[in-house]
Design a protein that fits this description.
Elements (H helix, E strand, L loop, with lengths): L1 H15 L5 H4 L2 H10 L1 E7 L2 E11 L2 E9 L8 H12 L5 E7 L5 H6 L4 E7 L5 E8 L2
Parallel strand pairs: 3-4
Antiparallel strand pairs: 1-2, 2-3, 4-6, 5-6
């Protein structure tokens, strides 16, 4: 999952002009901890991980993290299937939240098509503006 995340977020790092954006700075140990203690799902193709998503639950809120797809596999529905699967895996929460970089074309629209709405735009750096998004359940 860590290696996939590094490949998947490399373009975001380039667009941001920052190789230390949080997904690229996250350690394999941190991802391993999420796998052991939270919900983590992968999409695989013949045993090779081509997509991944993690869910961190705190009370009624589930925060999506590390949503990533192998760059050569973009546009094939893998990300959408992973978001749907994580939502189905966590029927115990009232709201899903995530943060996405607005510099990456299509990021906000991808989540909006899945029922997420922008709650807030946050200036992270001089060039990076993050969209904090959420989706209420029920």
């Amino acid at each position: 999952m860590h290696a996939l995340q590094m490949r998947a977020f490399a373009e975001e790092g380039r667009l941001s002009g920052d190789a230390q954006i949080p997904p690229l700075a996250e350690t394999a140990a941190a991802i391993e901890w999420h796998i052991r203690t939270q919900t983590a799902l992968v999409a695989d193709d013949d045993g090779r991980i081509v997509g991944a998503i993690r869910a961190i639950v705190e009370g009624p809120i589930c925060t999506l993290r590390g949503v990533c797809v192998e760059p050569a596999r973009h546009g094939r529905g893998i990300g959408a299937a992973l978001v749907r699967a994580i939502e189905q895996a966590r029927p115990d929460v009232q709201r899903f939240e995530l943060t996405t970089n607005t510099l990456v074309p299509g990021n906000v629209g991808f989540y909006e098509r899945r029922g997420y709405r922008v709650d807030e735009l946050i200036r992270y750096t001089g060039t990076i503006v993050l969209a904090r998004m959420s989706k209420r359940i029920g």
